[in-house]
């Protein structure tokens, strides 16, 4: 074989090794390289291995070494705890730090100018955390494999609890990445890291405890109810993960880019998914009516909290977003609730509330809500929640719309609105305490939306007068927002018109140059 | 990679950009262009709006009004296409910890979408161009400031941009590193790349720039080819001469000429402001000889960028 042939073969071999890595995320490649060389990963990896080894040794020297059922479980659980610490604490914290390093090392601007979009940056960070988690898991897998050979370990239960820790780690990693993108200020980042730590704590304690239960009585976790609960949890994690991912992408995007539509779409799709699950579960459960009304009320509350952020966005689309509004005025009009801007947020909120309420009403009708007096059944509580959602969410952003356009104004409104809500609940209570009005003192008044909903749900629904009162207030809140809703719609239509005109001008230019325009 | 590109047309066109941060206007109605193969020095005092303008050109900030076109692509409408044409080196940048020089460049090459053999070839070329070869396996954390600048420049060249925006690339460099940087910039311009470079070290810029844009308090004070700008701020040439004849006689002779607009005694000779081209200057020397003033020393005084900068800017802070 000639030297040239040898050289050619070597080049081909090098290329075949390199080629697959071309399809990997550059962030993944870099992060894994950095992590493997970093002190944190090396130390925690060695410590995890050492802990697993120690657990194995301590279990194997007892009088009933590995022969007893409880001994085997205890061995599995000690290994499981090592894994939980690595996957639930080390990996998400590493992901949090990986995003923070971009700010601290002043590399983010350089990254922004490459072909990497925020979505790929976030995914890269998350996948690299997954790779690190996979390395921890693979290091402990031989130990887990030994436990599977022992008596008392149900393989399905073992697989299930390992799946739990994997899913939890993934969700916390997404949360860590999302939290890390929220601020570049060191002090705030410390607070955010503490918040992440606080989010980890229940899992750190709960996962080993749940695993212990699952190993002791595996049948508990394979029942229909348990599977449904796990399915519902998976759906919740999916929705929460989508939010975390969306928030992280938005925070990494340029302030003039569209940082709202993805979260609006997640909210709408998440609502549809959650309602579909409720519809499915309602078919199975015996007390369907209560379940539907509770879930619909819960859905309305969650959506209201999320929508509040959309309502408190600044008014305009922004320069870059307006360049991507659909050309067709009709399509632009139809998608306008999902486009950024506080006025369009009001529209989206109204759509969400109407949609969820209608879905709940249809489900209740299917499950035989009283046709003679629908307000007295669960639907009364749903209706009152919907009306309150239309009062409380748009009211303050509508009144303080001018403040939202000022620097820092959004933060003031976003913090001020919950504070004012709290005051509207507590002040009548204080007044009641002085005037010895028992109802007021116990916060049982109409300005307390939680009490209103609770009473409607727990007791006797809602009267027509109350419905009319809250309906009137909702109308007032929506009317206050009418100017910015109308301005928001016209802005979208104008942007569509401008885009259409620009396309026509380009087509004309292209035709003049004899160049076919796409 | 790093091949000579088409040098026709402008690589960067800044059109009437204004940028406000709250009530503070950082950049007001700034206009200038940089052609392919041209090195444009962007000079101005601290806080003049240089970095903001450069960040707008690099698509990292958006102008409130106006637009910037990079290779014909608007930073407002087509930021992604504009980014493909530009390489930006910010004044302060980081280098990933626990990463070697090759890995750093490999990461950015991947991030710019370079694949397989092309990526390896490109990295090798930029490393050779920036003389980073011997440092290939060094950790970025162990590099000196000059070496890091070089590495960042190499990163900036990976996707072969037509326009390079270099914000204070010479700051903190030792004299040798500055000379090397100057040579690199000149070499890049010769390849047909447009370079917008800001620096406080005006003597450095003077030797490398074809044109300048002078900015103060967010306003563009002057823009054009270096000699044109100099001529614009000082239409006369300053000369110094000494004759064997008495200086009084020389002063009287010069004061009577219409192309000499100012004469003053300086040392053993006189300094004069001369208005005219090189032909007129030759005629002046001939006239001195004819008048038997016996000229023995004759030196034109060159206006440099520092003079331009000092004359155009008042050190105003915004």
Description:
The complex is a heterodimer of chains A (518) and B (318). Chain A is mostly helical and 518 residues long. Chain A is 80% helix and 0% strand. Chain A contains 20 helices and no strands. Chain A has helices at 3-21, 26-37, 39-60, 69-104, 108-112, 118-148, 155-181, 186-216, 224-252, 261-284, 288-311, 319-322, 329-335, 342-366, 378-399, 401-404, 409-435, 438-441, 449-458, 464-512. The longest helix of chain A has 49 residues, at 464-512. Chain A is globular, with a radius of gyration of 28 Å. Chain A starts with a helix and ends in a 6-residue tail after the last helix. The model of chain A has no long low-confidence stretch (mean pLDDT 85). Chain B is an alpha/beta fold and 318 residues long. Chain B is 36% helix and 29% strand. Chain B contains 11 helices and 14 strands. Chain B has a 6-stranded mixed sheet with strand order 6-7-8-3-9-10, with helices on both faces. In chain B, strand 9 and strand 10 (219-225) form a beta hairpin. The radius of gyration of chain B is 24 Å and the shape is elongated. Chain B starts with 9 loop residues before the first strand and ends in a 6-residue tail after the last helix. Chain A binds chain B through residues 15, 18-19, 22, 26-27, 29-30, 33-34, 37-38, 101, 104-107, 109-116, 254, 256, 319-320, 323, 407, and chain B through 22, 58-60, 62, 76-77, 79-80, 83-84, 86, 88, 90, 92-99, 103, 106-108, 110-113, 115-117, 119-120, 152, 155.
